[in-house]
Design brief:
Chain lengths: ~500, ~475
């Protein structure tokens, strides 16, 4: 029923509707409803229950939107969301406790703490590639921090979008958690409102629009963007495991349509053929001889994206560079795992995020050169290195700037809730996951308690040279100096 | 001319980026040497700083020391002793090191507000451009002339200028912009930053209220009066983002408090409004006129109960108290940023919470009260950058507390470790070995792998073992999906 009367409303969601939505949420927030620990826990539990109750519906929606293989849907969306929710439920009480901090002699006697306070009403705009996880994971953070939240799922994954609208309407406190479905006009109407935080997952172009819209209201923004995540492969490694992990982190992640999936490989000239052979062998093991028929590969999300990825392959500069794959099935929007060797630096494929099943391999004479290649481009969301060389690992960690680094695997770092997940430079602003999600939607209020005693008159006029000496000592925390200054008053 | 200036700026930025690329700014030795250089600069030029601030703002040396030199020295010393600790990776997760930070200040604590973020940027291993406020020209030129003599000039640059230069600087691509100033300019900074997806910290202001609960002990009232006077007229004659803007008090307590405040004012600043001591002047003619217009509005003028005299020649304004000016007048809707203190009386001090909540979130809320449950209520029900109980301004010098706004008072925070964090990227790093590679991670998918993963996510190790041993387990997954 609830979804029934939502539909017509969503169809004409304009500036007026957005204004009244914000007003309603502001009312809920101001009434203090979302601030209590109990409310937050109740909502998180509902979210968990929603996920458990409707596993099959979620899997069906993801299949309809992306032909996402069941196991992938379960592992990378449902299970990830459940762990995130459970982790938050377990930790939330601790996160909410004000943090006591030390005070110095400068403010003696006093006590100080940092109080975590919800920002207010927040907007989450999510992406189509992990339409379930990327919608609800930020919502967990927003709720945990005690905010009222509006979720705008991606219209490019329509089945998941409407499922989210329906389920959140049924399970969550509808006075504080809302889903608005729609495309550009609806998003623009939402962005014109004043939010206390905007959390956007998607691409840099839209990210810049979001940031500019937020500037009008001085709203802080988290941008979870992407980038060309490189995989550097050394020659001294376990070849089979490396090949399998790269495949899992490329084609096993929504067929390469993930912000942290491997974009391209950088390896040495000598080692490239061996790596390619290993990748080919494992690819056949995973997806068979006709990968277009494999049930274990996602399709390309839409015909627009199919055309975009095809264009990367049709670029003259990469003709003849395909060493594996290349098959396409336009009617089913499927593209086979494709490997390209030695594509030129100025080719299209090396200048935009691939976000699809193409894997170019760039070769270098010396593996250390790969760091310069990475650093001369835009900062990626993740960078991966396969090696057993300790020195190289250290140098990688020190010299490569990326949102996150992972050594000897691909993409797995996002499953660790103790690590912040987020970009730097072109790959985004702000981070989330675990405690970081809570902090992203929280204002850290500085609180200082003083009593009426302990008043140093040096703070006040009339100003004298003696006061200057005392302040010098006080501010530098020099107790002896304080005593000296006081004695020579 | 403008194009030439743009080119010059472009070259500066390129040079900074090259310096950063060279890796020089990342070592702890470089960071410490720069922080020491700032300390030395201040020690060597204390008098010149006093002089510059006197010229720009008529600030008294003690005030300069309390709000500027002392704060910077304390901050530098703290950074020096902590930077190595801050840089150390947290187990599995943290690495310092950003890149080029641009920094813009536009305020009256010129030195602190320029140097404090600079130290954060340096501690975090960045190269930096400082654009000091053009409204304090003596300080601006002092920084431009002196910083290059002490700091690594290939990594730290001072660029002076007005709005046009700021505009051109903003066209460049920065890795971080740290801005202190007004909300209006803050919006411009953020919109420009949006083009390059540059993260921004905005340190803005707002109307910082003081909630004054009814106090009965005269000695408490006296302390409160001193701290309020100190927090209103002390910081640059109210021209500070965390200075008290207005005061909320119960009707019945107002007259007592006003008497105490008047006494404190005359003790602090002298009796003669023509010859005020220890009081900064208004930064420039334009601001002076703005404040004069507020005071001369007839509806406001009638509410003046103390002071109100202006000295146009010296750009000073007497500490002025107003009682219940109209709430829709500029004085109660705009940040005052000057030595005028409106007092708003309420029938019950509890109403102050609603009063504050119906206005934009301030950078700070001050509350004088001995009532613990009222303190809790203020904390829980209002929102502001910071809250200080029974004192004013002093939270600014507490390095363990983050300093920054929320809502209209800005976002992002600094001071102490928070400054370091503001200019750092926390890079997540996960190390894996080639040992233990589980088959169920990889396709082709089947029921076995599905169950394995299910149990793994539930940390159900027993069932995993049973599964591996070949036991048939009850399917908890509808088989239709894996047909």
């Amino acid at each position: 029923m609830a979804s029934e009367d939502k539909k017509p409303k969503a169809a004409c969601f304009d500036g007026e509707a957005a204004r009244s939505l914000v007003k309603e949420l502001r009312g809920t927030f101001d009434a203090g409803k979302t601030k209590s620990y109990e409310w937050r826990v109740l909502q998180l539990k509902s979210l968990l229950k929603l996920t458990k109750d409707h596993e099959d519906d979620i899997i069906d929606a993801l299949r309809s939107d992306l032909s996402k293989p069941v196991l992938e849907a379960f592992v990378s969306e449902i299970a990830m969301l459940k762990s995130s929710c459970e982790f938050t439920l377990k930790q939330l009480k601790r996160w909410m406790v004000p943090e006591k901090v030390k005070t110095s002699i400068t403010t003696f006697p006093s006590s100080a703490e940092i109080v975590s306070e919800p920002l207010g009403i927040v907007l989450v705009i999510s992406a189509w590639n992990y339409p379930f996880l990327l919608s609800l994971d930020p919502v967990i953070g927003a709720i945990a921090a005690g905010n009222a939240v509006v979720l705008k799922p991606s219209e490019i994954a329509p089945a998941t979008s409407s499922l989210l609208a329906k389920l959140l309407g049924e399970y969550m406190d509808s006075s504080a958690v809302k889903v608005i479905e729609g495309a550009v006009p609806e998003t623009s109407a939402l962005l014109a409102q004043k939010w206390d935080k905007i959390f956007y997952t998607g691409n840099g172009k839209v990210g810049s629009i979001v940031l500019a819209a937020a500037a009008k209201h001085l709203t802080p923004v988290s941008l979870e963007l992407g980038g060309k995540c490189p995989v550097i492969v050394d020659s001294n490694i376990n070849l089979i495991i490396t090949a399998r992990r790269i495949i899992a982190g490329k084609w096993g992640m929504n067929n390469g349509q993930a912000c942290i999936s491997a974009d391209h490989i950088i390896t040495t000239k000598d080692f490239a053929p061996k790596l390619i052979d290993a990748l080919k062998v494992e690819l056949v093991k995973f997806y068979g001889n006709d990968p277009l028929a494999s049930e274990d590969l996602s399709r390309i999300v839409s015909s627009n994206h199919f055309a975009r990825v095809t264009k990367l392959l049709d670029d003259d500069k990469v003709s003849g560079k395909i060493v594996h794959g290349g098959q396409k099935d336009q009617s089913n929007l499927k593209i086979a795992p494709t490997i390209l060797l030695d594509v030129p630096e100025d080719s299209l494929i090396m200048n935009e995020e691939i976000f699809g099943p193409l894997l170019p391999i760039v070769t270098v004479d010396n593996l250390e050169d790969s760091f310069n290649i990475i650093n001369s481009g835009e900062k990626p969301l993740a960078a991966y290195l396969f090696t057993n060389n300790k020195k190289l690992k250290e140098s990688f960690v020190r010299n490569v700037s990326a949102g996150g680094l992972l050594i000897n695997d691909v993409a797995l770092h996002i499953t660790n809730p103790y690590l912040p997940f987020g970009g730097v430079g072109e790959s985004g602003i702000g981070s989330y996951h675990g405690r970081f999600s809570f902090d992203t939607f929280t204002h850290k209020k500085a609180v200082l308690y003083r009593s009426f005693t302990g008043d140093a008159s040096a703070r006040y006029p009339p100003y004298t040279p003696g006061k200057l000496r005392l302040l010098d000592a006080l501010l530098s925390g020099n107790i002896l100096g304080v005593i000296r200054a006081l004695l020579s008053w | 001319m403008e194009a030439e200036e743009g080119l010059r700026l472009g070259r500066s930025v390129t040079e900074l980026r090259e310096t950063f690329r060279s890796g020089r700014t990342r070592g702890v030795a470089w960071r410490k040497s720069q922080l020491r250089a700032i300390l030395k600069l201040i020690d060597d030029h204390e008098d010149a700083i006093f002089e510059a601030l006197h010229q720009d703002l008529g600030k008294h040396p003690v005030e300069v020391y309390r709000d500027e030199i002392g704060v910077v020295k304390k901050s530098a010393t703290n950074s020096l002793s902590c930077v190595e600790k801050w840089m150390a990776p947290k187990k599995q997760d943290k690495y310092g090191g950003g890149e080029v930070g641009g920094e813009f200040t536009h305020s009256t604590q010129v030195m602190t507000l320029a140097l404090d973020p600079l130290m954060g940027a340096i501690s975090a291993g960045n190269t930096v451009v400082v654009k000091p406020s053009e409204l304090a020209p003596a300080c601006s030129s002092f920084l431009a002339n002196t910083l290059p003599l002490y700091l690594d000039s290939k990594a730290v640059k001072v660029i002076e200028g007005g709005a046009d230069i700021s505009q051109q600087l903003l066209q460049q691509k920065w890795d971080k912009i740290f801005f202190t100033g007004s909300a209006r300019v803050g919006r411009i900074v953020m919109s420009e930053a949006a083009k390059h997806l540059t993260p921004v910290t905005l340190e803005l202001g707002g109307k910082c209220p003081i909630i004054l609960d009814t106090l009965s002990d005269p000695s408490d009232i006296k302390v409160a009066a001193k701290r309020i006077a100190g927090g209103k007229w002390g910081p640059c004659s109210g021209q500070a983002c965390i200075a008290i803007d207005y005061l909320l008090v119960e009707q019945k307590f107002a007259s007592t408090m006003i008497e105490f405040l008047k006494k404190t004012i005359s003790r602090f600043y002298g009796e003669n409004p023509k010859n005020l001591k220890n009081l900064s002047r208004i930064v420039n003619k334009h601001q002076f006129e703005r404040l004069r217009n507020i005071l001369e509005d007839p509806s406001i003028a009638v509410s003046i109960i103390h002071g109100g005299s202006l000295d146009e020649k010296n750009l000073t304004i007497e500490p002025t108290i107003l009682l219940n000016p109209p709430l829709d007048a500029d004085i109660m809707t705009e940040e005052i940023f000057g030595p005028l203190l409106p007092i708003i009386t309420l029938t019950n001090i509890q109403e102050s919470i609603e009063f504050i909540n119906s206005r934009p979130k301030p950078l700070a809320i001050y509350a004088f009260t001995k009532n613990d449950s009222f303190k809790k209520k203020i904390l829980a029900e209002t929102s502001s950058g910071s809250v200080a109980f029974n004192d004013t301004m002093i939270q600014f010098v507490c390095d363990t507390l983050p300093f920054g706004g929320v809502g209209q008072s800005g976002f992002g925070r600094y001071h102490g470790k928070y400054s370091f964090d503001t200019f750092s990227h926390e890079k997540a790093v996960l190390h894996r070995s080639f040992f233990l590679d589980l088959e169920p991670r990889y396709p082709p998918w089947n029921d076995f792998k599905m169950q394995f993963i299910r149990f793994a996510y539930m940390f159900d190790y027993l069932r995993i073992v049973l599964l591996l041993l070949g036991y048939k387990l009850k399917k908890i997954f509808s088989p239709g999906h894996l047909a």
